Structures are given as structure tokens and as C-alpha cells.
Amino acid sequence: MNFVPLALYAAAFVAYGWHFARRAPAVGRSATTILVAAVLAHTFVIGMETMESGQVPVGDATSAISMFVWLLAVSYLYTEVTTDERAMGVFILPLLVALQAIPAFRPADVVRASLLRGPLFGIHVSSLLLAYASFALACVIGITYVLLFKEIKAKHLGFFYARLPSLQVLDKMNQRAIVFGWIFLTVGILAGAAFAFQTRALPGSADVPQVQAMSLADPKIMAALVCWAVYSFELFAARRIGWGGRRAAYLSAVGFAIVLLNFVPISYFFTKSHNF
Amino acid sequence: MHLLLVGISHRTAPIELRERVDFHARGLEHALRTLAARSQQGGELAVLSTCNRAELYVACEDVETARAELVSFVGSFHGVEAAALEPHVYHVVDIEAARHLFRVAAGLDSLVVGEPQILGQVKEAHGAARDAATAGPLLNRLFHSSFAVGKRVRSETGLGAGAVSVSYAAVALAKKIFGNLDGRAVLVIGAGEMGKLTAQHMKSQGVRNVTIVSRTMANAARTADAIGGATAAPWDDMDAALVASDIVITATGAASPVLTRTRLEAAMRQRRSRPLFIIDIAVPRDVEAAAGEIEQVFLYNIDDLQAAVRENMARRTSEVTRAEAIVDEELDRFGSWMRARGVIPTVVALRQSFEAIRRAELDRLDFKLSALPQDARDEARARVDEITHLIVEKLLLTPTEQLKSLGDQETAAIYAEAIGRVFGLGDQSTERGLQDGGDADTRPERPSGRVQPFPRARTRGGQR
């Protein structure tokens, strides 16, 4: 079922690319319409999976990626509608297509481990997914900032100069996305820590290797904390030592690279605590 | 009915003549009312007047008479001798007149291709014609189509994109860095004319405050007064002003750089790397080139801005083909409308004729059905009414579509006349219809029941 949203995301990517190159308003509207259709189809798929398993499907890495893609698409659409700015779409959509290919080609196991229940688990997963979606947006905005910055610095006012909003707007959007993501990352990590302590106290948890592996030594937990440190530094540096603009954009890219690393290879191959 | 354009523009007339033929001086509406009062044609009128063109758009019967009348009017209205005016006047008719206005609205015929003001001026011309009650169906449609062309060209092509003067390029760059200029602070170093003009332009774009720094305080104060709302500061306060400003315009006559890399690095540290846009319009340059390497310092000198202007001009030129394609597209639509407009009276007359026959037969049916009970009679009549209505609609569908899709007005007139004769519609549907453009209130009389015979046919060799 995940193929339908994947195909629609791919079609939206083509439309956003066409719009970015030619700047035809009708193509831009079509791109947004296709993306809305993709989000609706994706919502339907997640809804069906929820009905099938009786819970929101976020317990395994593949389902979490699908949910992340959905959240990122919704966040982007919200940004597009509120700012009336479509230029970012061509940068966001490739990420959506690439990540949605994972649930499309590797369907998730909808049976969730019995430990993964309760409000703390829900807060942990949903907060982190929201944080990652915000960081993805910040990264894409940061990339566009750097592209425009380089054109203006080089005095070659060309392709991106004609298509992107101002540096000031991009910087503000980047900062907002980072602040929003940092708050949810913090909440998600705290909820995860509380959930780990709670789970360890449960009878029989000593026999569950994932619960025993929940420590700072686990690559996934370590990567999340490194991520938190990077974004905390970015927020501090932007406010205290004037690291806005291009430096903030680079930090956003570094932070999101860690997020992606954590999300895909670490989740599938390295973590011992998050492979339920 | 023809659409006629008579005018002069920067392509045909020198500035001295264009200055004299300025309809704005005495008001567009006044010109329209004056022309309407003396016109023998009695058609629709509109005047487009800008600093680069004066054009009159009219709907008329006789192109030559109308042209002569318009040239005479322009001469007498502005006090210009007809002989001086005539060599510079051009005139275009029908679809080519529409093409001209569409190209004008798109900015394709402007002195600076793609300049944005022209669409507003075209709208103003239509507004004046509407207020003076000289715009009718033809000109309303023509001007609204031209607005659509102008909007499409601006949104779908890059014809109007990019500044094409140095001061606009500076403002456009500042907006690309800061978003908008509302509340931004500008520092002008030097009290010369160039700095003053650029600062004035910035101020008109929403800049909050302008500070003038000059080696001579009196000069700074004089320039600040000339800009209006600006403040003068002593030369020694320049470093503090650099920290407080977002945009710096330097235009001194100094022989060596006023703003060195070291000086700007110190200012940027205090600014916590807030972006600083420096426009160096002095020759020799006031800012060390190496200062442009500082993070968040955007340094542009006069050559950089001129290069940006040249790039924009080249980009606009490359967009002309796409803009012309939009003009052609909209022209096709307008042409179809004009042709369809010519045959509408024939279509209306044809439908009325068919409807009259249908009604007459229904009335006869009523008599035949009178023997039936009331309920059965009503039902039978309703059924027959419905069926005959559908038959008439289907019979007329193809002829209507065929008439509306005819290629040119001449063919449409021949078809309209032929149909009028074949179905006995009378002259009103053809001759008058083509002239009036098929307004709802010009419907022909109901045709008489009897079809008039054709006049005796002529052979090619003459009458038999």
C-alpha cells in the first residue's frame, strides 16, 4: 500500500522541479495538489495500519520512517501554506521519496512488542519524529540559504537568486525549525529516558535484551544525544556568538546528517536497544 | 465593425513631439469626451497615454475616415499641425490592433522591455474610457484580455524580473538580503549627489533612518536636509554608525579606501555578524576589496551593480519569445471571440425562427388535443413540448458550433447571409448583426411565416 504515496510523492517531486525551473504558477498549484493527494493517501495507509494493529504504527524502524515522512510532508505543506513559498518543495520532496521507498519496498511488521506501550512511549516516539521532521525542514532551508548566500557573495545573481526568498527569511525559517525541533528532541529524549527506567523496573525485563541495552553505550541513544548537543550548540551560537546565517545552515546540515544516520543505518544494523 | 488603433510612440516620434501629445496634461476623460462629442463614427473610444506613447483605440465602421478624424483630433487637441504629426502616426486594424495592445500591456513594446508600470497605465486607459462611458463591449473585452496578457507575462515569464537600473539593482539586492527594508538603517558615507540619490531611493522603499557621515559636517547636514528625515553625524562617529546600520552606501572622493578590512572586521564583531550590505559607488573605490571576504559582509561596487543590470537585461531579452507566445495564445482567444461575436445575431435569429415554428405547431396541437380530458391533455402537451424542444436544440447544435468556429469575419459574413436567405431570417440578422456585435438588445424581429424567394441568380458572364 505504501507504493501509492511513494508514486504520488515522486509525481509531486517532478511537479515541484518543473515549477522551480519554469516558475509557472499553474504548475506550482498542481504540485501542491499532488502533494496534498500524496499526504491524504499516506494518511489512509497509516490509518489502515493503525486499524490492523490496534495502535499507531511507530514501534519498528520502518513504520517510524513512514510516520516521519508523513510528518515531514505535513510540516512542509504547513510551511508552504503559511509563507506562500513553494521554492523549498523541490528540495524536500527528494527526501520524502527516498525515505518513503523504505516502507514501500520493505513492509513493516505490524506486530508490536508488548513492552512498547504506555503514554511515555507515545510521547517519546511522537516527539522525536516531530523533532526529526523539523530538523529535516531546517536542513533543507539551510541548504537553500547556502545556495543563495554563495550567489550573492559571488556577485552572480542567477538561478537561485531569482527563485528563493531572501536570506533573512530563510535564516528566520531555519531558526524557527531548529527551536521547534530542539524542544521536541529534548522532550523525546527525556520521555525515552523515563520510559527506559520504567521498563527496567518491570518484572521479567531482565530477560529482554533490548531493555538491558538501553544505555548511553547504545549507538542510537548516543547518536540522539550527539544530535541534541549539536542543535543546542547551534541555538546557543546563533544567539550568543553571532553564528547565524551560513554557519547555522551548515550546523543544520550536520545535525540532520546525524539524524539520518541514526534513523536508517543505526536503526537497522547497529542498535541493540531499539530493534523490537 | 473594425477595431482601429491610431498612435505615436517612442518608435516613431521624437521626444519633442511625444511631450506635446500628452493626454494626461488635460486629463484622459476630458480628451475622451471631447473626441466623443466631435466623432462622426459614434463608436467606442479609449486613450492610452504614457511618456513613451499616445494611442487611441476606437471601434469604427470606416477605417480611413476614422483614422483621418483621429489624427485631426490629436492635432487640434494638442495644438500640433497635422503635417508635423502625420509622418509619425501609425495605425493598425482589427486583430493586429489587438496584438499591439497585448504586446504593449506585456511590456514587449516598451523602451525598457518588461518595465512594470505599463500594465497600470493600460488599466488607467480603460478606467478612463469606462468613466467617460466611451468603452463598449469590444473595447471592454480588448482591454480585459490585455490585462490577462500582462498578468500572465509577469507571472509565467521572467520578462519583468531583475532590476534594470543601478539604483533599483541596489534596492533589489538589499531586499534579497534583508527581506524588506522596513525599519532598516542606512549609513551614507560622503555627501555627494550619487550617495544622496541612492539613499533617497532606499528611503522610499521603507528604510527607517538614514545617517550621513562626511568629513565636513556642514555638507553632511545639507545632504541630510535634502534627503529629508535623515541625520548628519561627524566623521569620527563612523565606526559607531557602522555597527548600527544594515546598509552602507559609500560615495566619497577619497583617494584611498575609507573602509578597510580591519575596520569592518572590528565592526562585524560588535554587530555579532548581522548581515551588512555595502554599496561602494565611489571611483576610486572606498572599500577594500578584501572586506568582501568577511562572513556576512556583502560588498558590491558600481561595476558589480552594472554587471547585474546587464545580466538582467540579457535575461529579459531571452524571455521575449515566451512572452510573445502568451500574446499569441491570448490573441487566438480574442480573435475567436471577435469572430463568434459577428455571427451571434444570425444564431439568435435562427433559433428564434425555429422556436417560432415549434410554438406554432404546439398551438395547433392544442386544438387537436382539446377532445382529451384535462389531465391527459396537459401531460401530452408537456411531453410533446419537451421532445420538440430537444429536437430543435439538436438540429441547431451543429450549425451553431460551425458558425462560431468560422475562420475570419469575411467568411462569417458570407455564411450569415447565406443562412439568412436559406431560412428567411431577413437582413437584420446578417448586416446589422455583424455591425452591432450581437448584443442581447439587438435581436432581430421574429421572421414572417412566409419565406422570401431568392433573387434571380446571376451567371458569371453577367445577367441572362
Strand content of chain A: under 5%
Shape of chain B: elongated
**Radius of gyration of chain A from the CA trace?**
19 Å
Quote the beta fraction of chain B.
5-15%
How would you describe the shape of chain A?
globular
Low-confidence stretches of chain A: none
CATH domain class of the largest domain in chain B: Alpha Beta
Secondary-structure blueprint:
The complex is a heterodimer of chains A (276) and B (464).
Chain A lengths: L2 H20 L2 H29 L7 H23 L5 H17 L13 H35 L5 H5 L3 H34 L8 H4 L6 H22 L4 H26 L6
Chain B lengths: L1 E8 L5 H6 L7 H11 L6 E5 L3 E8 L2 H16 L3 H4 L4 E4 H13 L10 H15 L5 H20 L9 H13 L6 E5 L3 H12 L4 E6 L2 H11 L3 E4 L3 H7 L2 E4 L10 H11 L4 E5 L16 E5 H17 L1 H50 L4 H31 L4 H14 L8 H6 L28
Helix pairs in contact in B: 5-7, 5-14, 6-7, 7-14, 8-9, 8-13, 9-10, 11-12, 14-15, 14-16
Overview features:
heterodimer; A: 276 residues; mainly alpha; 2 domains; B: 464 residues; alpha/beta; Beta Polymerase, domain 2; Rossmann fold; 3 domains; six-stranded parallel beta sheet; four-stranded antiparallel beta sheet; 17 helices; elongated; disordered C terminus
